[in-house]
Please model this.
Amino acid sequence: MRDAEFHDHRLVEVYDAECPWSRDDDFFLSVVEETPRVRVLDLGCGTGRLALALAAAGHRVTGVDPAASSIAAARAKPGAERVTWLEGTAGELPRAAYDVAVMTSHVAQFLVDDATWLTLLDDVARALVPGGRLVFDSRDPRDRAWERWNPVGSRRRVTLPDGAEVDVWTEVLSVAGGSVAFTHHYRFPDGAALRSDSTLRFRSEGELRSSLAAAGFVVEEVYGGWGREPGGEGDGELLVVAHTR
Ligand SMILES: C[S@@+](CC[C@H](N)C(=O)[O-])C[C@H]1O[C@@H](n2cnc3c(N)ncnc32)[C@H](O)[C@@H]1O
Model:
């Protein structure tokens, strides 16, 4: 299965352990907090780290993700009853139901082909109220992050909640047409060797801006880093804040 890291319950546990709260969550939380007590859509919410924090901060949050195992992990966390969880995609969302939509930890890059990406943007625009905001991150291709994804540089040991240690490393398979295909490898203490194969699309700022315009969004800002640095500076990110008309 593609993207097994979000679907296989053993790999979902690794993802969750490897992705604690960090500066990116601070950024997304601060942008959402610019509008008090909003209805927030966390699209591609994964195991729910940000959705839960947004709900704890008083927002009405819906977390949506196509990966059943990730949603199940989110639902099992403390405070999960404050969030509405949906296993699905943006195409299933009600019209004009949210004030802010977030897509965090590079969800946007999993929409590899342009038609799928545009359909998602159309669906999100429809699900937002007029003037509703969309905030998301996409790695800046100028930073060439994939060059750091090699079996030596990416090797890490992830400690699970029960103390088990999993060795994880990443291997890039191909780089072509703005897309990077790669595999995460996992070795568990019981000897199990699992893998997760993915492809991510790296869109330039220009490509993001034109796709957003095509879906009817007005771009407010494109930051380069989590400290709201200008594009091309900061963390090799394209952090987009946009709104519908
Ligand atoms: C890197 S994870 C990010 C999860 C979470 N947002 C976080 O910050 O930890 C990417 C997520 O995007 C989800 N995803 C992939 N394709 C999607 C789509 N078409 N619509 C919504 N979510 C999608 C995956 O299932 C996965 O949970």
